[in-house]
Amino acid sequence: MSQNLCYRLAFLLACVALSAANPVMADQVGDLKSKGKLLFADDFNRDDGSSDEDAMGNGWTSNSPWRADGQKQAFLDDGSIRIVTAPGAGHAVTIFHDIEPAFQDCVASFRYRMNEPADTLSFDFNDPKCKTVHSGHLVIVKLSRKAIQIQDSKTGTMNLEVREKFKDTPQSPGKKRLMAATQVSIPFESRLGQWYDVAIRTQGDLLTLFVDGKEMGELRSPGISHPTKRKLNIGAKTTSPDFDDLQVHSLDQ
């Protein structure tokens, strides 16, 4: 055996050992799911027919009727769902699903794929009964081509008092300090046409993000601990990402 081959084998074995010893590389997501209770799952393996309106089935609705004059913006295709903003739509496409019972701590997992350079996808924990925030927005994970942002909307930019306070001074130092305290941006490049597995764990006021089983980052902020997350909003703005294999496991005791 050549010396070069020996070095290569030694390096490979070291990488395997490191992966086994590193908890980041372990199946943390699967372990967490096994300890939780499945509240909702959807693999989108169905057909929406020839409907000219959003017809996703399985309890999903969308904002197309009032934001896009009823134009179809959610398409079931090849076992996943593609979200496409219609021409003239006055808002990002959003699809909704209620989750019962409401929960505090969870693992929410899904797959996504970006198809165009400008693609974005947002995953939003929501509580329509929470009247201190705009449209019930609590916690949002925003995926783009170059980064993933975690945002505590409840105490941050969607808080009604905050919106009123800074409506005339959106670039003020106070607003910037608030944003720095309630959101974080994690560098991550999504390759076009490639599927990625995402898992979001909420535990008290801490949200931890995983991509393809690897822990990518976290945010600790008060709004994350909202006790009654009862709805999911999945959104896209002027783009056409794919979304699939959603599961929500409650970790509440």
Helix content percent band: 10-25%
What top-tier CATH class of the largest domain fits best?
Answer: Mainly Beta
- Supply the number of helical segments: 5
Please count the beta strands (DSSP E, at least 2 residues each): 15
Total domain units: 2
Beta strand %: 35-45%
Give the structural class. Answer: alpha+beta
Q: How would you summarize this macromolecular structure in one to three sentences?
A:
With 253 residues, the chain is an alpha+beta fold. Helices cover 19% and strands 40% of the residues. It has helices at 3-21, 28-35, 64-67, 160-165, 173-182, and strands at residues 37-42, 61-62, 74-77, 80-83, 93-103, 106-113, 120-126, 137-144, 147-152, 183-187, 195-203, 206-211, 214-220, 229-236, 242-250.
Account of the protein in words:
With 253 residues, the chain is α+β, with helices and mostly antiparallel strands. The protein folds into two domains: 1-25, no CATH class; 36-250, Exo-inulinase, domain 1 (Jelly Rolls), CATH 2.60.120.560. 19% of the residues lie in helices and 40% in strands. It has helices at 3-21, 28-35, 64-67, 160-165, 173-182, and strands spanning 37-42, 61-62, 74-77, 80-83, 93-103, 106-113, 120-126, 137-144, 147-152, 183-187, 195-203, 206-211, 214-220, 229-236, 242-250. The strands form two sheets. Strands 1, 3, 4, 6, 11, 12, 13 and 15 form an eight-stranded antiparallel beta sheet that branches. A hairpin with a 2-residue loop joins strand 11 (195-203) and strand 12. The chain is globular, with a radius of gyration of 20 Å. Mean pLDDT is 88; it is low at 3-26. InterPro entries: ConA-like_dom_sf (IPR013320). Residues 1-26 form the signal peptide.
